[in-house]
Each structure stands twice: as C-alpha cells, then as structure tokens.
Amino acid sequence: MSSSGQSISKMANNDSPEPATSSTFNLTIPRIAIRRTSSDTQLDKVQIKSASVYNIHGLSGSQHSLSVPPIHKDVVGYRGSNEFILTDDKQSTMDQIRSIGPWFRRKCKNVCRRKILYKRVPVLNWLPKYNMDDAVGDLVAGITVGLTVIPQALAYSSIAGLPAAYGLYGSFVGCFVYILLGSCKDVPMGPTAIASLLTFQACDGVWQRAVLLCFLSGLIELLMGLFGLGFLIDFVSGPVSSGFTSAVSLIILSSQVKDLLGIVAKGNTFIEQWSSIIDDIHNTQLGDALMGFICIVVLLLMRLLPRIKIGPPDACDQSTVQKIVNKSLWLIGTARNAIIVVVCGAIGAAFYENGKEPFRMIGDVPSGLPSVQAPPFSVPEIVDGNGTVIQEYESFGDMLQGLGSMLIVIPLIALLENIAICKAFADGKPVDATQELIAIGVSNIANSFVQGYPGTGALSRGAVNNASGVRTPFGGLYTGLLVILALLFFTPYFFYIPRAALAAIIIAAVIFMIEVRVVKPMWRSKKTDLIPGIATFVACLALPLEYGILVGIGLNILFILYHAARPKIHMDQAVTPCGVKYLMLTPDRCLIFPSVDYVRNLINKHGLKSQIPVVIDCTHIYGADFTAAQVIDTLIKDFKSRNQLLLFLNLKPSVGTVFEGADLEYRVFYDFEQLDKAIRECRRKSIPA
C-alpha cells in the first residue's frame, strides 16, 4: 500500500444473467478518508460515495473488492442514500478476549487524566475562580437553608420513626461532602420526606437498621456512579414519577395525622394508616389538634408572604425602605418553619414550666455531636427490667433480609429527587447523573459514620437555596455549621417543641407535592400516559412503595414493548420514470422479534391487494435480529411463490450482516436508477428477481 492512500479494485458489470464485458480500473482513496486502528496496519472504515448494488469480499491483507453495476446517468430517476461504510472482517472470539486487557489499561489510564479528575471532583473547577461575591451569596443562602433544614430534620425523623436527633445527625456531614463532589450548586443534602418514609418502611424505627441502610444505599449509589448506571432513572417515566410522588405525599400526610391529633396509630400503607387512625380517633387531644391546625393555617399564609411586593415591580425603581420591607417579607416567608418551631417551642416551654402539658412534646434530644463510628452490622438484644425482650438480636444477614428491595429502591428514588433539583435550576445545562450518584453515594456513606439515615437533595430546600442567591456548592458549609451549632447549644430547648407543630410543618410542605396539576396537560397531550401514572398512584397507596413503583415501571415497559411490536408502515404507490407502478412500504423502526410477524402480515396483505412489485424502504431500520431474518426469509418465499417482485432499498450494512448470516436470498439497492432498472427488467420478463 502506498503512503498516499488505499487502492481498491472496482469492477463494472450488469444485472443480466448473461456474461458481460467488464471494465476494471483502480480507485485510489486519499488517506484522509481512511480511519485506522492504533497499530496503523488494519483498515477500520472507508467511506465510498455513490455506491449502488454491492457485494463485499474480504481479500488478503488490507485489499477490499467493491462490485458496483454501471449507473445509467441518462435515465431520469431519484437517488437514494449514497453513503456506504466498508468495514473489515469481524474479530474472532479469542481476539475479542485478548482485547479486554488493552481496553482495561486504556480505561485505567483515562481515569488518571486531568479532564476526568476535574469532572469527578467538580470543586476543582469553581474553587480557583471563587470571589467575594460568591462568598456573600453562599453565606446568605447557606444560613437561610440552615434555618429550613433544622426544623425539617426534626420533623422528618418522626416520619422515619426515629428519635429527633437522627434527623440532625444526617444533615451536616453530607453538606460538607457535597461541596467537593457535587455538580449542582442548588442541591442541599439532608433528609427528605420521601427518603424518610422509605426508611420507616424498611427499618420500622430501629436506628441500627436505618444507619446500616444509609451506609449500604450510599455504597450502592457510589457503585452505580462508578459503573455509569445513572441511565437507570430513564426507566422511570414522568407519569410514573408523578404518581409515585403524589402517593408518597398522601402517605406522609397520613402518617402525621396521629401527631396532629395526639392519638396513637400505626401502619405502613395508606389503608393501614387510616384504618388505625379511625380506630383511635376518639382519643383526639384538643390541645394538639388546636395547635396543629392553627400552625397549618399560619404556615400556608406565611408561604404567600414572598409573593407580596411593596412599590414598583422593578427592584431598581424601589426605594430603600421598600427594598427592606420586601426582603423582610421574603425572609419571614422563607424561614416560616423555623419561626413556627421557635414560637411553638416557647409556648410549650411556658405551659411546661407552669406544670401543664396540653401538648405532646418531642422529648429529650441528646446534646452534642454524634460519635464517629462504623455503622452497626447487627442489632443487639434489649431486655427490660422484667426480663421481657423488647428488641430481638439481629445478625447482619437478618438485617439485609429485612432491608430487602429497599437497597435498590432508595438509591433510585434518591437519584430521582436529586436530578429533579438539578434539572429545575440547570438553565438548560446538561446534568451529569453519574456524578450526582457518586456525590450522594459518598455523602450517605459519610453520614452513616455519624449515625445518619439515608438522605438526598430536597426540592423544597433547593428552591430556597436558589431563591437565596446561592453561587456555588460552598453554601452547604454554612448550612452544615448551623446544624452543628444547633446540636451543640440548642438541643435542650428542642424538648419543648410540640409534636403537633412538627406535624403541621410536614403537612403544609407535602400537600404541595401532590401533583394534581399534571393530570390536565397529560390528558390533553397523551391520554394513555395516565394509565401508568394512575396505576402507580393506586398501587403505592394499597401496596408497599417498592411494589407500587415496580407496577408503574412494569406498565411502562409493557407500553414500550407494545409500541415496538406494532411499528407503523408508511405506504406509497410510486411510478418509475418508465411508467411502471410499484408499492413503496417504509417501516418506521427496527425489526425485532416482537414485531416481525406483524410486519410480515401487513406487507403480505398490501402485496396481495396490489399485485404489483413491492419495495421495502429500510431507511429507518437500524437493527434486526435472527428471528427477524427468519421471518423476512419466509416473506421473500411468500412473494416468490406468487411470482411477485420484492426488493429492498437502503438496507443498513449492520442489518444486511444479520440477513446474510441467516442465508437470505434478496436484492438490495441504494439508488432509484438501479431500482428502476430492476423493476423494469423483472416486469418485462414477468419473473421474480
């Protein structure tokens, strides 16, 4: 082979069965058109323009033969696809096995590249450019989010069935880790309502299980990120996600009714909870109910304060007093949870000091930071003074068996929540799901060493973070420090916070997570999307959550399979430049085993009805399998048995390889001139080609 290019032999012939004189000439393709392997000795791909009917034969060395019939340029017609990819022979199985070693070495080498390092440790991108404006924005946002996180952490721990301190334990280390590994400035790591409910259903209030669940779910999230499995959330469609979120919101709301009314109720599912509430509703405590409903009304009203604007709409036209009033209203509305906790805590303390307890308090919260220790891998046996076993011993295997499918569900839901925040405030920028998996995975692993339970980014806190003017993930530092200060100095005062106030905070938040607003546009857009959404919603209410979301995903997969099994076929009755009519059938997707019999029946139906040559345009067929090849072979024989012409147009080389592997006898064309000629000749002879 010369240094200037690759020589390819091109031989002209015709389609007629009689031998014809052929002309032979050499075609030199410039080197720039050839892509070579790293060894520069093996031809990888060559692109040849204006290829017609072809037949590729592997030759020795790097020589390839291309057989192209002559093109009659004086014949009027339309040209089809004029690009053709010439590839070398496939590697043998042993060659593929031998290539694993070099592939693995290349991957390991790529990990150490500076580009990958900056991608997987995002702090290296923004920290060198950090300035005073960023610092001020992050400080304000971090403190504002901290005022939201503390009351939410206390409230969410009750959803998880854990003491209030565990919500705070899971709210500061993750913030610090996310600064280093997080790719979205608006994500505030910590407990969320959905993660808390899933933790309760998996752990049933046993803190050792919750901490181990945090460690294992973080480990699974990290592994999913390292193996690039962030695409798994693509299997959870919008309707399924909406149905799941709405059902979870109702379950969370129902779980707080007992604290709102001061009664005792248990249950994992929506039906079990309300059955238990109805059984004990006659024991409703007036003080708790009054406190709870007043707090809900006040919180809903305070939620409207940030929308109130004094003065002109444009901030530049407002006076200093107007700006101060507007900022104050916004701050009061944003910190409404903290204000309610402080006020209700003061009311509770006043009653308690006077010897009265009209409300149920959250009780003692251990003061100080949690001890740093490995997550527990067993649950010890606990016996009371009477010798009664309160909590049975559980080994690591027993704990794993109890956690079950939640080890997969919680990481997926955590990623789903996190990505929702990233997309909501991304301003059109791409979201790296793999990096987010790594970030929340490492955060949860770190949280488990300070006795936290699983957490992720919460959309409500993300909205506060964004509205507060956060500039980088560094705002999480101030949020985490505020939680640490609360643990060090304010835990004695948490004793007086009424449970009804925390229940009101949760109810006032989750009521807006019920996605009723998506039903109307979904109905207008595509009514069938309501089926998996409603099915997920009902299943999550009636069954454990992990089964409910599996029902929705399963229905989605069934819809996808049905869509794949029933492709659309566009039919056109065309006429060649010579006046011969033929039927052009264009399938709109790949030929795979669920759809081929359906396609065969449709093509046969149209062929029998028209009794004219049929051309299958394969432009949109990007893949096929062995079953498809067998059915196409049957289709070809069907047409041959009734002496009807069947031709293929623009067949992809990858699909052709599948057909050739099944020993199919078929004719394929890549321009309309040759197609016209074949139809004209076969029509004249009245025999199949």
UniProtKB/TrEMBL annotation:
GO CC annotation terms, alphabetical: membrane
Membrane-protein topology: Multi-pass membrane protein
Keyword Membrane: yes
Location(s) in or outside the cell: Membrane
Signal sequence segment: none
Residue intervals passing through the bilayer: 135-154, 160-181, 210-233, 289-308, 329-352, 399-416, 475-495, 501-519, 531-562
Name assigned to this protein: STAS domain-containing protein
Species: Anopheles dirus
